[in-house]
Amino acid sequence: MIISMTGFGKASGTVKKMSVNVELRSINSKFLEVSTRLPVMFIDKDSEIKEMIGKIITRGKINLVLTIDRNSNNNVSLQIQPDVVKDYYNLLNQIKKATNLKEEVKLEHLLRFSEIFKADDTSDMQKNWDEIKPIILKAIKDLYKMKVVEGKTLEKDITKRITGMNKTLNKVVKISDKNVKTSKERIRERLEKLINDSVQIDNNRLEYELVMLSDKLDITEEVTRAKSHLEYFSKNVKETELSGRRLNFLVQEINREINTIASKSNNSDISQSIVEMKEELEKIKEQLQNVE
Length: 292
Description:
By secondary structure, the protein is of the alpha+beta class. Among the domains are: 79-119, no CATH class; 153-288, no CATH class. It has helices at residues 46-54, 82-99, 107-110, 129-196, 203-217, 220-237, 244-264, 268-288; strands at 7-15, 18-27, 32-37, 60-69, 78-80, 117-119. β3 (32-37), α1 (46-54) and β4 (60-69) form a beta-alpha-beta unit. α4 runs antiparallel to α6 and α6 (220-237) runs antiparallel to α7. It is elongated.
């Protein structure tokens, strides 16, 4: 089963009269990369959220945004952490000195670091984390659901292209068989002409040339391997534990066989069919970049 790497998910709920909203967006990436934007009081939950996502999603660049709207009766009291402020102030001054910057370190620079704040210990927000987590999980599952839906569309399109390539291969085989037959007839005609002209023919040499010609034009092995790869590809697309890397490897192998067939062909119709298959293979390759 193909699962897309792109998608969107969201969920919302109410915790202690506070509105909790979670949104996730996912785009292509070779690995799982998760970034979060959280309220100050939940900055320390970043690792826990990433772990939650990692249990459901294996690849993709994911951005999660958690927002909490509070009414006047649920304001969270924030405290400044003086030691952290000093550390960041000193760090910025070190950067300024190392880079020979003339600009002074200002309050606006320090305010960019959310770590300088912490929620008041009297706040109930930390106690409400266990009620917020299910909302986050619901949003993650909503994202996964959309990825599955998009994956089905991808699977349908890729399967259609694979089926088309199989049909094109069958067409190539028919053209090739006819081409080989035509080539042999052409040689036979030349031989008859040579015999009629009383030209002495080396039978051993002739037999060798015929074998070489047959090997050069015969694409049976390449077609068999290509069809085997296509069949294995179709089977893997429908597997529960799908490997995008495995499918990419199969695409490379199919491309290798198609190139060999092209090198053995001296027929314009076969060449045209090869171009069509390579175009389809390139489209499949592009789509696989979006497979989790």
